[in-house]
Amino acid sequence: MVLLHTVRSRGADVRVRVEGSGPPALLLHGWPHTRRLWDHVLPGLAEHHTVIAPDLPGLGESTAPNSGYRADAIATDLAAILDAAGADRAAVVAIDLAVQPAFLFAMTDPRRVTSLTLMEGLLPPLPGAEEFLADPPWWFGFHGVPGLAETVLPGGEDPYLSYFLTEHTFERRGIDPEIHAAFVRAYTGRDALARGFGYYRAAHGNAELIARATASARLTVPALALGGNVVGSALARQLSTVADDLTEHIVPDCGHLVPLEQPGALLDVLVPFLGRGLSARPPSGSRPES
Predict the structure, then answer these.
(1) pLDDT, the chain, mean
(2) Where are the strands (E) in 29-112, listed by range?
(3) Of all residues in the chain, what percent are helix, strand and coil, respectively (each to 5)?
(4) What is the pTM of this model?
């Protein structure tokens, strides 16, 4: 059974899809996506887990929060989502711009995270991504300028967003046309664009938060770094500097949108990894599994 819930956090109404049964798994999309990024993965994962897939605050069917999009604020929302689902702990799976808040959540409240899977995103200022950032993606700067992109893009959302949904897939094959169209609709209009770009504008603050979190602590939960052919192994190199238990996997014949491009290959790696995370000893002081 598929259930849709609304979770109130920081003044936002966060829409959450819940499906399946078993140990909880929290799936976090990036930009320009919604929870539908996981459509082809969710049924297989729900055979083993209670899958919790929100539209991130401000994106998709979720409304905007009243205190921004920094990773620490989003981590607060993740805790609220787990609380509403009655989940003391969950496996956290994140891609793209959700990588930073997911990482910070696992660093600052590891009692609530059984394992951490991160894919196709970066964790500045951790070392290891210098080669990738030597020629940084042009849109990082464009999206990061307050008020600019959402002013010039309305009316051209379809071709602009379609660039990211096609150009960054393997051999430019694109994704499921119906999901592609749903993503474009979700980011059409000045306000919807601005909410998405808010995540980019939190980048500097996120880097400070990550630097602070890793200055005196390490990532103790089992971690999996998954790459396609865009970010590739850069994220794994960054995690290797702070993670006690790290597994790396590159998905073949895959671009940036791993859950839509190679859902079967993703499940083949993800399901056994999440099972291994459940057998790991929880950090000291953790709450019992509900």
Answers:
(1) 95
(2) 50-54, 90-95
(3) 45, 20, 40
(4) 0.95
What is the C-alpha separation between 224 and 42, in angstroms, rounded? 18
30-89 tens-digit pLDDT: 999 999 999 999 999 999 999 999 999 999 999 999 999 999 999 999 999 999 999 999
Kindly state the DSSP code that residue 56 receives in the 8-state scheme.
P
Residue 194: count of CB within 10 angstroms of its CB: 18
- In angstroms, the Cα distances linking 220 to 116, 148, 180, 270 are 10, 40, 36, 19
Which amino acid would we find at residue 54?
P
Among residues 176, 146, 133, the alpha carbon closest in space to that of 38 is found at: 176
Residue 168 in this model has a pLDDT that exceeds 50? yes
Beta strands in the chain (DSSP E): 2-9, 12-20, 24-28, 50-54, 90-95, 113-119, 223-227, 246-250
DSSP state of 175: -
Task: Output the CA–CA distances (angstroms, integers) from residue 243 to 28, 58, 123, 221, 223, in the order listed.
Answer: 20, 30, 13, 8, 7
Q: What is the pLDDT of residue 89?
A: 97
Nearest of 97, 50, 52 to residue 70 by alpha carbon: 97
CB burial of residue 268 (10 Å; 0-12, 13-18, 19+):
middle
Region 170-177: mean pLDDT is 97
